[in-house]
Design brief:
Blueprint (H helix, E strand, L loop, with lengths): L1 H13 L16 E3 L5 E3 L2 H17 L3 H8 L3 H8 L9 H11 L3 H9 L9 H31 L6 H30 L12
Antiparallel strand pairs: 1-2
Length: 202
């Protein structure tokens, strides 16, 4: 029994991050493996940078009140996470929600830097390619859905008003997608074309 107790105590002291600060970043003074096994110390300077990024992230999402609504945390909790003098750190899940909301990977970029990495920004051309691909894929899906529902509606020889409304709804989505695709393609044409990486290979 004594051996089990000793093992438990050892686990608690060796845990990383330490048990008393599980929700945020490693405690000040701890060492982390960086690029190619190098060890980066989580100093007070790093802590202040993470605190600043956390504060900027909250502000980028509209401030304390809106972040409280987005994350379902109380305003006092969000306020502590924004305060420069407090050590309360937001969970990773919350950071990801906020970064997605404002489109700024403030904490993710800093974590990458801490580990000797850097984030690559998606180019405008890359965004256009992804947007066009997603829209075309959805258009094909909706067109297939329209075919299936039309066949189903005609199967008994009668297209009811409700069935007609359903088909019109799908057709409206197709019309919207056609307009969005036309808009993207017009922008591509105005920019003199769009280079698609990997195109024409295979």
């Amino acid at each position: 029994m004594r051996g089990g107790s000793s093992s438990s105590q050892s686990d608690s002291t060796d845990q990383f991050p330490p048990r008393e600060t599980p929700q945020g970043f490693p405690a000040t003074g701890r060492l982390c493996l960086g690029e190619r096994g190098s060890r980066t110390e989580y100093t007070e300077r790093w802590h202040l940078r993470f605190r600043g990024a956390q504060r900027d992230l909250i502000d980028s999402c509209g401030g304390i009140e809106r972040v409280a609504e987005l994350t379902s945390y109380g305003k006092s909790t969000v306020g502590r996470r924004r305060s420069p003098g407090d050590r309360d750190e937001m969970p990773y899940r919350v950071a990801l929600i906020l970064e997605d909301d404002c489109g700024r990977p403030l904490l993710t970029r800093l974590m990458a830097e801490f580990n000797g990495r850097e984030l690559s920004e998606q180019t405008e051309a890359g965004r256009e390619v992804n947007e066009l691909s997603a829209q075309v894929a959805e258009l094909v899906e909706q067109a297939g859905k329209l075919v299936v529902e039309t066949v189903r509606a005609k199967a008994d020889g009668i297209v009811t008003p409700n069935e007609a409304d359903g088909l019109r709804s799908i057709n409206a989505v197709i019309a919207r997608l056609n307009e969005e695709i036309a808009s993207v393609l017009a922008g591509v044409k105005a920019d003199g074309g769009l280079k698609v990486v990997g195109g024409g290979q295979g």
